[in-house]
Amino acid sequence: MIGDIDLDALILWLYGAAGAGKSAISHSIAEICEKYGWLLASFFFWKTAGERNNINRFVASIAHQVSLSIPASRVFVGAAVDENPFIFQQSVDVQLAKLVIEPLQRLHSTGFDFKASAFVMIVDGLDECQGNEIQSVLVKSLAAAFCDSPFRIRILIASRPEVYLQSTFNSSSLKPHISHLALSNEYSPEDDIYRFLEDSFDKIKREHPLASYIPSPWPSPEVLRELTQKASGQFIFASTTVKYIGGDPHQLPHRRLNVIRRLQPPKGEKDMPYAELNSLYHHVLSNVDDIGAVKLVLGILIIVNPDAEDLGMYMPETVDDFLFWERGETKACLSQLASVIECDAGGTISILHASLSDFLLDPSRSHQFYLSRESVLGDSAVLGLRHLRQQDCDKSGMSILPSYELIL
Fold first, then answer.
1. How confident is the model at residue 151, as a pLDDT?
2. d(CA 386, CA 188)
């Protein structure tokens, strides 16, 4: 993790790539806070859960949990609903004021000692709440509601580093109340993922109903290292792999491992090894404004010259030049994929999820986002010829766009 935590800040923004473990951290913090009586309320957004992928029930859930965490506040929360039965149809700002802030203020006026306890509110998966603008409004509403309150309340918000959220958390009005903590790529989780896989496979061998049919030794250290490398530091790949291999009591775990390693085919359309990852990538790509432009860039990164990305040779400007785009268009294009692709401080493009390539190159998984090798290479050949013609027209005999040679 990277970041200086301001203990006086109202909100701590924990951000990192998709599948980096933000929700696991949020759950662990929630459990610790609940154990010591610090948890005021929590809400975990989830894109595929109808009641948890929008803002509609957020304040109602928070208010209910506040009344449970501080039982003395229950009468004031109930009174607020009695006074205005249509409160849940009003804005988030109004709901927070009437159902959370004012009941706590009324309780405070009775002499209740809030200073004896510190309270934590946790909001996880903010980026999975429907509506980019709504996500930003929620952050601003929480800051406005609690920034001047006399209560010792701290708010943890976890999300992917989407561009619009970066803009919100870095806005001048919120900056004094926000502390940032990044799940940085400089931390190498490979050892942790290897141990997780090792422990999970040991559990499968002990507890799976068909464990007696699993060959021994299984799996080999080489296979564990292969899976760890394929995870590319993302726990979501490791957890999805384990769920698929050991999650069905009617399927042989060692056969399912072979499916993961592409040594055997899946059993029919319902046998989906990476259903959770597919959902994640579909969600990320569905929120892109110009998917055609994004697919052009992804095709270059993944198909045309994939080794260049490993060597740190891909710069946004290189791709701009190759595509005959205006400088800056590639970076703007990739900014919508900040949760799976990163442009570091030096400008180098890095794909954070190695499994993204597998997804995009498999039409049965990626559907409308599928990258066809033939189409990508054909389009690239046309662009290459266009560069060559332009080079021939250059009187100096030198290409005016030399960086394209890094791609071809």
1. 78
2. 42
User: Going by C-beta distance under 8 Å and a sequence separation of 6 or more, which residues neighbour residue 221?
Assistant: none
Is 155 part of any domain? Answer: yes
- Report d(CA 247, CA 273) in Å as an integer: 11
Residues 260 and 326 occupy one common structural domain? no
Q: Which two three-digit tokens encode residue 137?
A: 């409004």
CB 208 within 8 A of CB 214: yes
Q: Hunting for tokens 């190759």 — which residue is that?
A: 322
Same domain, 195 and 222: yes
- What number of other Cβ atoms are within 10 A of residue 372's Cβ? 15
Tokens 């530091």, located at residue: 233
**Domain range for residue 300?**
279-406
Say if residue 249 is preceded by a cis peptide, omega within 30 of 0.
no
d(CA 203, CA 327): 52
The residue out of 229, 257, 273 marking a domain boundary is: 273
How many distinct structural domains can be found in the chain? 3
Token pair in block for residue 20:
């980096």
- 229 with 136, same domain: the answer is no
Tokens for 342, please give them: 């990163």
Across the chain, which has 408 residues, the per-10-residue mean pLDDT values are: 67 86 90 92 88 90 93 92 91 92 88 76 93 91 86 90 89 89 72 90 94 93 92 83 91 93 81 84 88 93 74 76 91 86 79 87 93 92 86 57 51
